[in-house]
Amino acid sequence: MSENTCAVCDYPLDENRVAVTIGGRTVEVCCEECAQKLREAGQAA
What we know:
The chain is of the alpha+beta class and 45 residues long. It has one domain. It contains 1 helix and 2 strands, in the order ββα. Strands 1-2 form a two-stranded antiparallel ribbon. The chain is globular and about 25 Å long. The model has no long low-confidence stretch (mean pLDDT 91).
């Protein structure tokens, strides 16, 4: 996974990227749907 792809689905990031902070670390995802998936995974951990 590179810096230019979504942390959830590996889709290329564009200007619509969403930053999400999980466990003190900020990661970027491609959309709000992936942001929600990441938040839910962070809460489950």
